Amino acid sequence: MGAMSVRTPSSEPSEATRPHRAGFACFVGRPNAGKSTLTNALVGQKVAITSNRPQTTRHTVRGIVHRPDAQLILVDTPGLHKPRTLLGERLNDVVRTTWAEVDVIGFCLPADQKIGPGDRFIAKELAGIKKTPKVAIVTKTDLVDGKALAEQLIAVDQLGKELGIEWAEIIPVSATAAEEAGRSPSNKGGGGRGAGQVDLLADLLVPLLPEGPALYPEGDLTDEPEQVMVAELIREAALEGVRDELPHSIAVVVEEMLPREDRPADKPLLDIHAFVYIERPSQKGIIIGPKGKRLKDVGIKSRKQIEALLGTPVFLDLHVKVAKDWQRDPRQLRKLGF
Ligand SMILES: Nc1nc2c(ncn2[C@@H]2O[C@H](COP(=O)(O)OP(=O)(O)OP(=O)(O)O)[C@@H](O)[C@H]2O)c(=O)[nH]1
To answer: Where is region (G2) located (predicted)?
Structure first.
C-alpha cells in the first residue's frame, strides 16, 4: 500500500506528492495586447540569460518563473513583437514552428477592446496548431467594469467555438494591478503576489507543462536583458534569407552598449558594438554580401528593431568575425552565450 496522506476535501495534492513540471510557454496576441507587461509581472524584472540554454529551444527566453513545483520558461515568438513581421509571411514558418514547439500558448486579448481582425487573424492561425494547449488570457481587466469583462470572456469563449479552438482555460488578468500591489522584485514572491490574478495564471499554466526537472538553474537570471535581446535581433536579421546556407552557423555577441557622451538630453544616442561570429572564412562573403551591401542591410534592419525595442536612437557598429568551429568548441560556445 502506498503512503497515506491527509487531505481536506478541496485541497490540492501537496507539493511533496505533486510531480515537478518544467516547460515552455509563449504569449501571443496583437501588438499592445499586454504580452510584455504580463511577462514582467510573472517573472519580475529579471530576465533569463541564455547561457546553459537547453538544446530543446532556440527561442529567446524572456523570463523564467521558478516555483517549488515547477519551472515555467517564457519564450519570445520571433517576429511577434513587430507588427510588420507579424503579418508578414514569416508568420507562416517561424512563428508557427514556435507555437508547435512550446508546451502551452497564452493568447492575450485586451479586456478593453472588442475582438478585432488582428485578434481573429492570430486565432485562426492558432486553430491550426492542434497539439499545443491554448489558454485565452483576457488582459488589462483593471480598465473595464465587471459587466464589460463578463462580455469579453463570453466573446472569447465564442471565438474559440467558432474557430474550433478548445481553450484549456479562459482567464482574466491585470498585470498592472499586480504591480501596484507591490511585487517583490526577487522573483520569489512577496507582498501582493496574488493581485491581478497573475499568480493564478501561473497556477493554470503549470499543470499544462510536462513533468520533469528544472531546465535552468535557479540563479540563471540577469538584470540586463537588453544585450541578449539586441544580439538576438541582429542574429535574426543576419540569418534572414540565408537560413538554408548558414542555419546554425551564426552567433552574435554584443560587446558594448554605451550612451554617446556629449549629447543633448533630448537627442540621446546609444552606441552598440556587436560581433557577428561565423564558423568559416568562406561564410564571410554570404554575410557581408557584394560590396558589403548585405551586412549594411542587416545593420539597418536590426538597428530599426533595436530602436523600437529600446526606445532610443542607436548607432550600430557591426563586425564579422570568424570563430572557427564554434559550434563544436565548448569554450567558444560559452563565450558566445550558448
Ligand atoms: N491598465 C493596464 N494597462 C496595461 C496592462 N498590461 C499592459 N498594459 C499597457 O498596455 C500597453 C501595451 O502593453 P505591452 O505589454 O507592451 O503589450 P505587448 O503585447 O507586449 O505589445 P507589443 O510589444 O507591441 O506586441 C502598455 O502601455 C501597457 O502599460 C494592464 O494589465 N492594465
So the answer is: 55-59
191 is in an annotated binding site: no
- For residue 143 and ligand 1, the question of a CB distance below 6 A is answered with yes
pLDDT digits (tens, 9 = 90+) for 187-225: 333 333 445 688 889 999 999 999 999 887 665 554 446
Strand partners, 67: none
230 by Cβ neighbours in 10 Å (0-12 / 13-18 / 19+) ranks as: buried
From the CA of 333, how far away is ligand 1's center (Å)?
Answer: 35
If you measure from the C-alpha of residue 174 to the centroid of ligand 1, how many angstroms do you get, rounded to a whole number? 10
| C-beta 283 within 6 A of ligand 1 | no
Domains of the chain: 21-208 (3.40.50.300), 224-335 (3.30.300.20)
For 90-142, the pLDDT digits (tens) are 445 666 777 888 999 999 999 999 999 889 988 988 998 888 999 999 999 99
Take residue 148 and report the three cell numbers written for it.
464589460
The CA distance from 108 to 111, in Å, is 9
139 Cα: distance to centroid of ligand 1 (angstroms): 9
Instruction: Please answer whether residues 71 and 64 qualify as being in contact, where contact means their C-beta atoms are separated by less than 8 angstroms.
Output: yes
pTM for this predicted structure: 0.61
Q: Is 118 in the pocket of ligand 1 (CB under 6 A)?
A: no
With a 6 Å cutoff on the Cβ, whether 139 touches ligand 1 is yes
